[in-house]
UniProtKB/TrEMBL annotation:
GO cellular component: plasma membrane
Membrane topology: Multi-pass membrane protein
Record's protein name: ABC transporter transmembrane region
Domain ABC transmembrane type-1: 1-134
Amino acid sequence: MVTFFMVSHFLTKKEAKAAHQVNIQEEEVNGIVFEGLSNIQTVKFLQMQSSILSIFNEKLEVLFNRIRYHIFYFRFRVGMVNLCGESFRVGIAGFIIWGIFNDRYEVGFLVLFLGYFDRIWDSLEVLSDVTNEFIVSKYSISRIIDILNEPIRIVSVQGKQSFPRNWKTMDVKDLTFRYDQHEVLKGVSFSIKRGEKVGIVGLSGEGKSTIFKLLLKQREEFGGQILFDDTPLESIDKSDYLRYIAVVLEHTELFNLSLEQNILLASPNEFSKDRLEKALRIANLSGFLHKFPQGIKTSIGEKGIKLSGGEKRFFRF
C-alpha cells in the first residue's frame, strides 16, 4: 500500500501539471474566440479573418499537443498504478497458492484475500482520483494567489469624512505618482475653481488618465496633495465622494440588458422616472428610442451590439 501511494502520488503530480497546462491554453483559445466575436464588426470591416484564424489555429495546435501530453500522463499513471496493484495481487495470491499446496493455508483463505483485495482496490482507485482532482484544483487556485496577496490600495473607510458639498476650489499640489519603478507624474500642480471648465492636454502616456484615476480615488499611494478647499482627498469617504462625481469614460462597457437597466446599474437605489427622463434628454438618447421595438425596455445585446457607434457615445453621457 505504501508503494501504491508513493507511485500514485508521484505520477498524479505529473498528470496534474499536464492538466494545468491544458487549462491555461484553453483559456487562451477561449479568449481569442471571445475577442473575435466581441469585435466581429471590426474583424469583418478590416478583413482580419485570416489573421485571427491563423492565431487561433496556432493556439489550438498548442492546446491539442498539451491535451495529448495530458492523455499520455493519465494513461501512464493508470497503467503503472494498475501494474503495481496487479503485481501485488498476483504475488500474494501466488504465495497463498504455494501455501495451499504445502498444506499451510486453506482454499477459503485465497477466496477471502481476493475478495478483500478487490474492495480495498476499488477504494484506493477512488481515493487516487479524488487526490488527482484535488491537486489539479490546487494548481488552479495557486494562479489567483498573487491577486489575493495584492495589498489593498484604498485604505479603510474608518475615520473618513463626508465630501464637502460647498467646496469652492480644488487644488492639486506637487502631485507625484509611479507605477512600480516607472514615474508617471512629477510635481504636477494646478487649481480649479468650482464651475470652471478645464481641459488637460498632453502626449500619449504623459499621465492624463492617471490624474483622473487619482481624482476618482482608484489609487491613493500618491505623493503631494489633492485638496477640496482644505480637505485632503484621501480623508474623504470614497462612497460618499463618488455620489457627487460624474465621469464619462473613454470606453463604456455595456451589458446584455435593456437600455433602462444599463442606465440604472450605477445607482439603482436612486431611481425615479423624472430623473431617468432627464438623463435621457440631457444625453440626447430620447431622440432614437422610438427606433427600438420596446423603447427603453429593449435589450441592447452583448456589449451593446444593437447600438450604433454614435448611439454608444451618447450612452456614455
